[in-house]
Amino acid sequence: MADRHPDHGVLGEEFGAEDLDKEFVWVLDPIDGTRQFGARLLNFGVLIALCHHGKPVIGVIDQPMGHIRYCGINGGGATLNGRCITSRKDTDLDHAVLSLANPNSFCGESRSGFEALNSTGAMTGFDGGCLAYGALARGMVDVCLNGPDLDPFDICALVPIVEEAGGCITDWSGAPLSLSSRGAIVASGSTQLHETVLDLLPGRTQSP
């Protein structure tokens, strides 16, 4: 990539950081869900994102063993294996399907947000990994929640896929996600549902 795009930067979990001040920066996570991969489970994926001035504009979640590839392109929609997908828009929290990260990843203040969401919804699954965000983009899941243990290479690829499918994805205070984002994130299938979820999280309740 350096030969073809010498003016691009790269941030990778295994690669490290190089030229993050460039206009375009690639963000790579070769195995998102290392525990699942090690256990030979399918809820892991390869994450690829391209950021423009820090904003994620292209995202890919690829699960090679399941032949699953989610893509999102800013202004170009979201797809699953080339087929257009959209998130579910008409679900309230009481009837929502939730995907919450590994309960052990919620510690300190974030635990209260996890407990608040865990007591709601019609159905809850745990530790779905990056594929849960793809499922949200295709209307199978309504809310995804992760705790404060995420880095930019865990986050950036998810953003265009969720947003281009019509969903919302932010940090717990409701702020947009970018190349510099890290920590707890939440995604919802619609703007209205997202506001309801944010009101249950510590970041929103303590923001000015």
Write a brief structural summary:
Helix content is 22%, strand content 31%.
Describe this structure in words.
- This protein is an alpha+beta fold.
- Helices cover 22% and strands 31% of the residues.
- The protein has an 8-stranded mixed sheet with strand order 2-1-3-4-5-6-7-8. Strands 10-9-11-13-12 form a 5-stranded mixed sheet, sandwiched between helices.
- The longest helix is centred in the middle third of the chain and has 9 residues.
- It is globular, with a radius of gyration of 16 Å.
- The chain starts with 8 loop residues before the first strand and ends with a helix.
- The relative contact order is 0.17.
Number of E-type strands: 13
Low-confidence stretches: none
- How would you characterize the largest beta sheet? 8 strands, mixed
The strands making up the biggest β-sheet line up spatially as 2-1-3-4-5-6-7-8
Spatial gap, N to C terminus: 43 Å
Kindly state the percentage of residues in helix.
10-25%
Q: By helix and strand content, what is the structural category?
A: alpha+beta
Write down the overall geometry: globular
Features:
alpha+beta, 31% strand, single chain, 5-stranded mixed sheet, 8-stranded mixed sheet, 208 residues, globular
Could you give the topology of this structure?
Layout: E1 9-12, E2 16-18, E3 24-32, H1 34-38, E4 45-52, E5 55-63, E6 68-73, E7 77-80, E8 83-84, E9 97-100, H2 110-118, E10 123-126, H3 130-137, E11 143-146, H4 152-155, H5 158-164, E12 168-171, E13 185-188, H6 191-198, H7 202-205
Helix pairs in contact: 3-5
